[in-house]
């Protein structure tokens, strides 16, 4: 005979949900609705004259060569920023998992960079690679390489990719370590007894079992690359030189808050939100098919 547990307070669960619902409404749905409304309007910088233009802002944005260039820049930057930290973090997690003495100390050192603010991380890399006073810039010049990210767009892109990837490695490392700890050691021991070498054990046992963790990090890194890297770009290059590092999120800021093109900026934010939602849906629709959960 089983007894049924009944929660006596019928109102309390809804009261506990109120703070989360309020935060979601105020900080997500309300700004999103305002962006949708403003994307259909054209107004002067002071908000004195407002004209309804429908999809005019979207047509103007999608026909702008600078916006198309920002899309291409965002694709390159996001792909590199999402995949590079995962690859490096996986290697570091596997290496740290082998450490017997001082394992906690090594893991703590690897996690520290995640606590650094994006703007601080950007400034750190800017100082290291500054063509005038940077330590690594001096080494590159001594090696005969003409390093100047303030004038060279490709070098500037490389620098913000390195800064953004370095910032995200710690987050990926933390989850990969947790995933490695969840793998039964008996599987690896049995494979070793059967004669499987370490590399083969990794690709046939460890890596497939890390698929759920890798998929989760792919989604998180994609969102990070699109939105959370704004502080790094703003601190390091401000979208330059010559708009070479102006991603979609930075163009929204530049057009809306600097050039005061409010309608165009709102339309860009709506398009950006749609792109991220579509990418996330594609990842869950197609990429997750290859993920096997234990």
From TrEMBL:
List this protein's GO terms for biological process.
Answer: transmembrane transport
- CDD domains to which the protein is assigned, alphabetical: TM_PBP2 (cd06261)
Q: How the protein sits in the membrane?
A: Multi-pass membrane protein
> Gene3D superfamilies from the xrefs?
MetI-like (1.10.3720.10)
Q: Name one GO cellular component term.
A: plasma membrane
Q: Which keywords label this protein?
A: Cell inner membrane, Cell membrane, Membrane, Transmembrane, Transmembrane helix, Transport
Q: Where is the signal peptide?
A: none
Transmembrane portions of the chain:
12-32, 75-96, 108-129, 156-181, 202-227, 257-282
From which domain of life does this come? Answer: Bacteria
Compartments, record wording: Cell inner membrane; Cell membrane
**How would you summarize the oligomeric state and partners of this protein?**
The complex is composed of two ATP-binding proteins (UgpC), two transmembrane proteins (UgpA and UgpE) and a solute-binding protein (UgpB).
Q: What does this protein do?
A: Part of the ABC transporter complex UgpBAEC involved in sn-glycerol-3-phosphate (G3P) import. Probably responsible for the translocation of the substrate across the membrane.
Query: What name is this protein filed under?
Result: sn-glycerol-3-phosphate transport system permease protein UgpA
């Amino acid at each position: 005979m089983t007894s049924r547990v009944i929660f006596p307070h019928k109102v309390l669960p809804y009261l506990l949900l109120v703070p989360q619902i309020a935060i979601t409404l105020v900080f997500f749905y309300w700004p999103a609705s305002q962006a949708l409304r403003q994307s259909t309007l054209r107004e002067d910088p002071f908000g004195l004259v407002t004209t309804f233009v429908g999809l005019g802002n979207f047509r103007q944005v999608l026909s702008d060569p600078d916006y198309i260039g920002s899309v291409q820049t965002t694709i390159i930057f996001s792909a590199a920023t999402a995949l590079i930290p995962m690859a490096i973090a996986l290697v570091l997690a596997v290496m740290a998992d082998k450490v017997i003495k001082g394992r906690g100390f090594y893991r703590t050192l690897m996690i520290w960079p995640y606590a650094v603010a994006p703007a601080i991380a950007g400034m750190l890399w800017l100082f290291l690679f500054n063509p005038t006073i940077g330590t690594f810039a001096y080494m590159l010049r001594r090696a005969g390489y003409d390093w100047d990210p303030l004038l060279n767009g490709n070098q500037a892109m490389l620098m913000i990719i390195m800064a953004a990837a370095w910032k995200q490695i710690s987050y990926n490392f933390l989850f990969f370590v947790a995933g490695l700890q969840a793998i039964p050691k008996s599987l690896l021991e049995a494979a070793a007894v059967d004669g499987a070498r370490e590399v083969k054990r990794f690709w046939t046992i460890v890596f497939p079992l890390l698929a759920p963790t890798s998929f989760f990090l792919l989604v998180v890194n994609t969102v990070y690359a699109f939105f959370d890297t704004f502080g790094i770009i703003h601190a390091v290059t401000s979208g330059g030189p010559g708009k070479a590092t102006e991603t979609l999120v930075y163009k929204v800021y530049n057009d809306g808050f600097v050039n005061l093109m409010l309608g165009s900026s709102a339309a860009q934010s709506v398009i950006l939100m749609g792109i991220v939602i579509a990418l996330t849906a594609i990842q869950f629709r197609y990429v997750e098919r290859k993920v096997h959960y234990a």
